[in-house]
Amino acid sequence: MNAKKIIFPGIAMIAVCYTLGRYSFGLFLPEISASLSLSTTDAGWISSVMYIAYCLALLTAPFLIHKWGHYQVIRLSGISVVVGIAGVALAPNTLILTISLFFAGLSTGWISPALGNAASTELPVADRDRGNVWINSGTSFGMVLSGPIALLFTEYWRLSYGLFAIIALITLYWNSKNIPHRHPIASSTKDQHQFQLFQPHSLALCVGSLLIGSSSAIYWTFSRSFLTVEQGLSYTTAIWFWIVMGISGMIAGSSGKWINRLGLSASYRLGMFMMSIGIIVLIIPSVGFNFASAILFGISFIFLSCICIVWSTRVYTKQPSMGISLSFLMIGAGQFVGALIAGNVIDLFSYSVGFVIFAGLGLVGLLIKIKTNTTA
């Protein structure tokens, strides 16, 4: 199997589901809030709804992949994100906006395990870690794409989401044509017995993933609002902040060799330290420090996501989709709680207090020690 036929459309689908469908809500939040009269608390609740959808999809993903195969689940993800993005573009009120973002959130919970399973079963063993890491870096490619679109349409966020919907439809077609369509093989009694949620060393995976999600939630949802509301950055500068964060995350696409060289445990602690520094540096009232924060956060978050995928496939050697689903479920749970708490903390205290608290939470990750079920 040609690795490019899995990796390139996979990168595009991750970009569409995660960035265009989910994280772009934070990019366009000031304009959406002004148009639909959303408060900071409303925005936190809507973000939490996306995370609920994400978690629900992750709970069902291993079983859907087991029953239908990864091809059908990839298509399901694509359909869900097209519906969600188009709904946002047309949303006349908060209710329709929330429902649309729920559909977009579902796509992210299905796509990572499905593409992870495709890479783990379709690619040669030597290419699997590299393939998974590159596919996961699609979030950054999506950020680099969405930023210029936001600049082009300025405050016309509905037009931006309309273009996102067209891109999502094209990406769905691309994946449908390239990802191998194989019917899942009927499971034996032994295979069904092995289809288990918890494995040795899975607790550390869950806790580590939860910390990534909870500590990063405030940045994804409120960083741009903080820069424009509190620090007075112009619209154009704030969009360039987003683009720089995406470009920085693309660097993590080549992190597979570093994960192997440093080891998973050291890589995870390095990533959590970098992300925490990136979060706290944002509150320094300087454009230079703002962009330094974007670089640190962009690299570290994608790096940590890649670590979780490699970590998951090594703990769940026979059930890669189960491991990825569990890890990303914990990231989503952390982001759900984190976004909800962040909005209320900002309303009660200030943006700066919120970012300091969540940076401190990320430093807790330095205590995590990683073991896997393989010697890799």
TrEMBL record:
Membrane topology: Multi-pass membrane protein
Keyword Acetylation included in the entry's annotation: no
Localization per record: Cell membrane
Molecular functions (GO terms): transmembrane transporter activity
GO annotations of cellular component type: plasma membrane
Main location: membrane
Keyword line: Cell membrane, Membrane, Transmembrane, Transmembrane helix, Transport
Spans through the membrane: 7-25, 45-65, 72-89, 95-112, 133-153, 159-176, 197-220, 232-254, 266-285, 291-311, 323-342, 348-368
Keyword presence, Transmembrane helix: yes
Gene3D superfamilies associated with the record: MFS general substrate transporter like domains (1.20.1250.20)
Domain Major facilitator superfamily (MFS) profile: 5-376
SUPFAM superfamilies (alphabetical): MFS general substrate transporter
Name of protein: Major facilitator superfamily (MFS) profile domain-containing protein
Species: Paenibacillus nuruki
Lineage: Bacteria, Bacillati, Bacillota, Bacilli, Bacillales
